[in-house]
Specification:
- With 569 residues, this protein is an alpha/beta fold.
- The protein has three domains: 6-165, Rossmann fold (3-Layer(aba) Sandwich), CATH 3.40.50.280; 188-430, pyruvate-formate lyase- activating enzyme, CATH 3.80.30; 451-568, Serine Threonine Protein Phosphatase 5, Tetratricopeptide repeat (Alpha Horseshoe), CATH 1.25.40.10.
- Helix content is 46%, strand content 14%.
- The protein has a seven-stranded mixed sheet, sandwiched between helices. Strands 8-11-12-13-14-15 form a six-stranded parallel sheet. Strands 9-10 form a two-stranded antiparallel sheet.
- The chain starts with 5 loop residues before the first strand and ends with a helix.
- One of its GO terms (molecular function) is 4 iron, 4 sulfur cluster binding.
- Keywords: Iron, Iron-sulfur, Metal-binding, S-adenosyl-L-methionine, TPR repeat.
């Protein structure tokens, strides 16, 4: 029998607008796990993503609450969205006074006392992993068993005007026992594991999951999840494990299953430079991995140790070279403005940047949050306390509590790093050295043409800091075709020629591509456009009409008919 309670799960909006970076705008996978479990138990569940809307998120939320009249609203809260979560909680109570408000996620786990004081509208906080705790709480609420809340592990709530904490909940020992979120939802971000072996001092993950509580889905469970999502029409994934490759054999088995299932997917993952080798990279590339991100953090050994990344420099350099050699784009995360940061340590980061030659890089100013070692250390030294979070801020930049640093100096550090990366990116690309393994040739072609597209028509093409965009793109497209025929390479070369208005040469390139992929929509459209620009509208029409059921083709077809009629008259 279906449970009559209605549950609304919410991903709140961040305090500061996001210009880029889709991670801040996606629904956390934890909400999908909770939603799937609740739906499997008969609850009515909907998920609202306020982080990816342009309108006023509170007004959108109020409209949804008024329409749905939920009994329980659960918010997934991190530091950057806590204010929106509190504003929505207050709005919900005004619309529906009897609604139960539940906060969960990293910030409620680490700042429970603060949030319950700052936001009296919160009824319960679920700490750490939320699936079982939320289910037991919703069940107790549905049964009107108010006196049973103290028996539910993993809760924090107010009782007689005092904050009451129940016993911590044991981690879920077998993640495979959870309901597949893909049974009910479609999404691109997913995770094989829970926990991380690292001890990064700027990261709250170790404390949230527990360093010793590394748990995994089986390769079969994870591959089945992806297969179900592919059947829903999703073909690119972001695997968000803190260290995806920490269990080598498990990852290789997962990759083998993806290959065996013949799933035509691409995916990105995150790892550490000390958790990869040729075997795992080969397996990942064949299974569709196209990007692997590594936390380099700093070129200074002293700062890497302070940040909890005591990895020798040679291992970092080797990991980037090895990753690129298998046709997986290596992306580097750098942090600047750390304790002890100086012009010299930034120069060491620049030197390491030029040694590892990343093909993508993200540069972060060091900020600290509750739950991290750096934040706890600052609290113990009396530099900050939790009252800080009454301010309407997302985070605390380290330089604000470091007498040796200030905003101007730290901004200069970031500017130097970014300038060095973008001004040398074309050189890094020319120095890619791919492994000479014939079975990887088609993958090499895909890798090179995908990278080329970012220079000719993608992210790097639009960035004035990047040098020689078209020249670099052409070199990459040509090199891709030296490994294997590749539709994107033919298309990219043709579009470069179109930009130069060399339409006849573009047609010759497209003819070669269409010999391999006669039904490829992009190649057909590009051919049609090239023919139109040479006045051959009747020929162009043939390429557009193959896809006349697609609305985007209508404008091209209409232009061709108009010009054919004009020529006849």
């Amino acid at each position: 029998m279906a449970n009559q309670q209605k549950i609304l799960l919410v991903n709140p909006a961040c305090l500061d607008a996001r210009i880029s970076g889709e991670d801040a705008r996606i629904v956390p996978i934890g909400l999908y796990y909770i939603g799937a479990l609740m739906m499997d138990k008969g609850f009515s569940v909907s998920i609202l993503n306020l982080a990816d809307i342009r309108d006023d998120p509170v007004e959108v939320f109020k409209t949804i609450v008024s329409r749905q009249q939920p009994d329980i609203i659960g918010f997934s809260v991190i530091n950057s969205n806590r204010w929106n979560a509190m504003e929505c909680a207050n709005a919900a109570k005004k619309i529906r006074p009897d609604v139960t408000i539940v906060f969960g996620g990293p910030t409620p786990t680490f700042l429970a006392d603060h949030l319950l004081t700052a936001c009296p509208d919160i009824d319960f906080i679920v700490t750490s992993e939320g699936e079982i705790t939320f289910l037991e709480l919703a069940t107790a609420l549905g049964n009107n068993r108010d006196n049973s809340f103290e028996q539910i592990n993993g809760l924090v709530f107010k009782q007689n005007n005092k904050i009451f904490r129940t016993l911590p909940r044991d981690p879920i020992a077998e993640p495979d026992s959870l309901v597949h979120p893909s049974k009910y939802f479609a999404y691109q971000h997913l995770s094989l594991s829970r926990g991380c072996p690292g001890k990064c001092t700027f990261c709250g993950s170790p404390k949230f999951w527990g360093n010793q509580d590394l748990r995994f889905h089986s390769p079969e469970w994870f591959a089945d999840e992806i297969q179900a999502l592919v059947e829903k029409g999703i073909h690119h994934f972001y695997i968000s494990d803190d260290t995806f490759t920490m269990d080598k054999q498990r990852v290789i088995e997962f990759c083998s299953l993806i290959i065996k299932k013949k799933l035509a997917i691409t995916w990105n993952a995150i790892s550490r430079v000390d958790y990869i080798d040729a075997d795992i990279l080969s397996a990942m590339r064949k299974a569709g991995c196209i990007q692997l991100s590594f936390g380099v953090e700093s070129g200074s050994e002293k700062i890497r140790k302070r940040l909890g990344k005591p990895i020798v420099q040679d291992k970092i350099i080797t990991a980037f070279s090895l990753t690129a050699s298998y046709g997986i784009l290596p992306r580097a995360y750098f942090i600047y403005g750390s304790p002890g940061e100086t012009d010299q340590t930034i120069q060491e980061s620049i030197d390491l940047l030029n040694a590892i030659k990343p093909l993508s890089a993200i540069f972060y100013m060091l900020v600290i949050f509750p739950g991290t070692h750096l934040y706890q250390s600052a609290v113990q030294k009396g530099l900050v306390n939790d009252d800080l979070w009454y301010r309407k801020i997302e985070d605390l930049p380290w330089f604000e509590i470091d007498e040796q640093l200030d905003f101007t100096k730290v901004k200069t550090f970031g500017d130097r790093l970014r300038s060095e990366f973008y001004s040398n990116l074309d050189t890094f690309v020319r120095q890619i050295d791919l492994v000479d393994i014939k079975e990887l040739y088609p993958f090499h072609a895909q890798f090179l043409s995908r990278l080329a597209m970012t220079f000719s028509h993608g992210e790097y093409a639009a960035d004035t800091r990047v040098k020689n965009q078209d020249k670099t793109a052409k070199q990459l497209y040509d090199r891709a075709l030296s490994y294997a025929p590749d539709a994107r390479a033919f298309l990219g070369l043709a579009m470069l020629l179109q930009k130069q208005r060399r339409f006849d040469q573009a047609i010759l390139i497209l003819e070669k591509g269409l010999n391999h992929w006669p039904e490829n929509q992009d190649l057909n459209v590009c051919m049609g456009v090239s023919l139109m620009n040479t006045g051959r509208f009747t020929n162009a029409l043939n390429f557009f009409e193959k896809f006349k059921k697609i609305p985007e083709m209508h404008q091209y077809i209409q232009i061709c008919h108009q010009n054919i009629a004009r020529i006849k008259t």
